Amino acid sequence: MSDKKREILGNALAIIQDDGYAALTMRHLASVSAMKLGSLQYHFKTREVLLEALAEHIHDQYASLWSQDNTAFESVSLRTFIEFLLDDIGRVESARLWPQLWAWALVEPTMKAMMDKLYQPLVAFLNHRFTQLGCDKPKEEALAMLCLLEGAAIFVGAGSFHADSRVAMRKNLLDTFEARFGEDFCRAGV
């Protein structure tokens, strides 16, 4: 991907974070990117192509964040995975981006497909971990955990009304899961 495309996608993310998903139009993005609409369409012919590229860009950003601390996603402990997600909502960019993407996915089929693609590996990872831990309904456990963790962005994410409670909530949540699953919760590969 060219530097110009990365710059445009960065501008698209900034629009979503600052003004909400409804503000991301091709015309607005062209304006923010200091180019004419035709020039933007040279890089991204349609809105759907832009959204697909945006999905890949977001995926790549999170893969990069993850790889800074962990070598293989599949080999980390459940605790490490949860810590990563809870720490991520402490970043203003994440706390503002994800709720917008979730809302957008409810009304935009292309965004729904993007979010499904982004979340499939997370659900699979958690499903696998809960199966290893002997849970009766691992998929339901996985979905419940994602709901809890992702919802935390709204209530205790950076910039939220209860952001000052994020660290205490993080500790409480980790302690709760550790009490439930014991030492396996902290063991890599389980």
Care to give the gist of this entry?
Helices cover 74% and strands 0% of the residues. The protein is an all-alpha fold and 190 residues long. Helix 1 (3-19) crosses helix 6 (92-107) and helix 2 crosses helix 3 (37-43).
Describe this entry's structure for a reader.
Keywords: DNA-binding. With 190 residues, the chain is mostly helical. It has a domain at 70-186. 74% of the residues lie in helices and 0% in strands. It has nine helices and no strands. It has helices at 3-19, 26-32, 37-43, 47-69, 78-88, 92-107, 109-132, 138-156, 166-181. Helix 1 packs across helix 4 (47-69) and helix 2 packs across helix 3. The longest helix is centred in the middle third of the chain and has 24 residues, at 109-132. The two termini are 36 Å apart.
Write the layout of secondary structure elements.
Layout: H1 3-19, H2 26-32, H3 37-43, H4 47-69, H5 78-88, H6 92-107, H7 109-132, H8 138-156, H9 166-181
Helix pairs in contact: 1-4, 1-6, 2-3, 4-7, 5-9, 6-7, 7-8
Protein name: HTH tetR-type domain-containing protein
InterPro entries: Homeodomain-like_sf, HTH_TetR, Tet_transcr_reg_TetR-rel_C_sf
GO molecular function: DNA binding
